[in-house]
Structures are given as structure tokens and as C-alpha cells.
Design a protein that fits this description.
Strand content: 25-35%
Radius of gyration: 19 Å
Strand order of the largest sheet: 1-2-8-7-4
Largest sheet: 5 strands, mixed, barrel
Shape: globular
Order of helices and strands: EEEHEEEEEEHHEH
Distance between the termini: 42 Å
Structural class: mainly beta
Length: about 230
Amino acid sequence: MAKHFSLDKEPEELLRFNIAPSQMIRAVLALPHSGTPVLRLLKWGLVPSWARDAGIGNRLINARAETMAHKPAFRSAFQQRRCIIPASHFFEWQRLPGGNRQAHCIRLKDGSPMGFAGLWEHWPTPGADDSPPGSLFSCTILTTAANELLAPLHQRMPVILPLESYDAWLNAPSAQVASLPAPWPADTMESWPVSTRVNSPLNDDPTIMEKQKNSLRRNTISDLKEGKASV
DNA sequence: CCAGACGTTGTT
DNA sequence: GTCTGG
DNA sequence: CCAGACGTTGTT
DNA sequence: GTCTGG
């Protein structure tokens, strides 16, 4: 991880398998006067600096790369505060006819790390009786059009940056990186269906990545009532 | 000028 | 903070 | 993303 | 339906 993301030391406690929006997530970012990028914990869900309260972050978990440069909520972060979120895999939920959702796990075929393009912000936290004023550091993950592998599952996918673009994404003037976000080539990725156990962030272990076994049991009446009948 | 929004996903 | 709508 | 909550007044 | 929390 340190080598891939040019960090000056190997991070600790990196093993997470199921990170939900609103949770803390590690991101690589460039700080002024810092030679090498640093790894920081950010709250997933960007809270703009002007927000009245932090609740808006619950909805700003993604930003469309096509419009990030112009949207008031993301514009300054795009210009000044871009980051890269390391990931070994991610999940997408496929809407099935009937309304059920099938979760899928996606990763690179060769298992190498992905770097999601992101933006980060700082929001001044109001002081309270038991806590002094401070800053909330948060982030959002950029999305782009789904590639051919992901298209059957979902219309959008996270922006995955090629290794050779990391430095530019973190350090170059924004005008030079606006067109970097693009769908990752589908032929280097793979996906497989996984259990609904992934739906709970409490299940944060490697078993949520296991391929879902085909269900050979007969449909039950309750399955039919709940629209869970297999085809 | 002031007031109010500021976003994505997906579903209808 | 900055933009849009009235 | 998904899961789960979501509200006040007044009456028992 | 919409918002909040994880």
C-alpha cells in the first residue's frame, strides 16, 4: 500500500471490508509543505464548509465527475482539495425485476489496489459544552459512467485513477485534471454476486466478499409474497 | 437588493 | 462561500 | 449504498 | 415518501 500510493510509511489497521457512507474512510491527500502524500481518516459524506449542519454529508457521498467543477457543493474542493481513496474492492447493488436488489462485489482481476478519485473538505464544528470547536474532515467519491462490466448492474461506477495520474490528481492545477475521470477498462475487472450480509456495515469481514451460492431450494409462499422467488 | 439553495442515487 | 430566483 | 425511523397533543 | 444513521 505504501509503495502503490507513495506513502512514507506503511499504514496500520487498514483491513476493512465493508465501509458504509458516514463512516471514517482512509484517503490519500497532499498537504501544503508536505513532500509525500499522507493518509488521513475522513468522514465519507462531504460536508461543504458553508453547511449549516453536518447532516448534508449523509447525502453527498458521491459527486458526478462531469459536474464537480461547477456544483457549488464541490467546486472549491475540486480546485483545492482532491484525494485518492484506496480500495481493494467495492460493491454495487443491482435492481432486479420485482424490486429486489442483488449485491455484487467488484475488483481488479489481478487483485491490485484501486485508487478512487475523491474530494475532501473541512467544516468548522461548533463547540459544545463537552467539546471545543474543531474541524470535521470529510470526503466524497467521484462517479462516472459505468463500463461494460458494470452497466448491467448499475448506471454509474466510482472513478478509478490510473497509477500514472495519482500525482497530477493530487497536485496539478484543477484545469489539468478535469478530464482525468473516466470509466475504468472493463476487461481488467471482475464481479460476482454476494450475500445480502453486505447490507449491514456491522458485517465487516472477508466473508461478505464470498460468491453467493446458487439457491437450489424451492420457492416458499413467503418468498412469493415478498417477491423473492427465484426465476 | 434579499432569500434560499447548494447533491446523488434511482424511481415514478 | 457563491449562485439562482424573485 | 441499505435499514430503520419518522410525531404531537392529550388521554389513559 | 423522506430523512437519519451506519
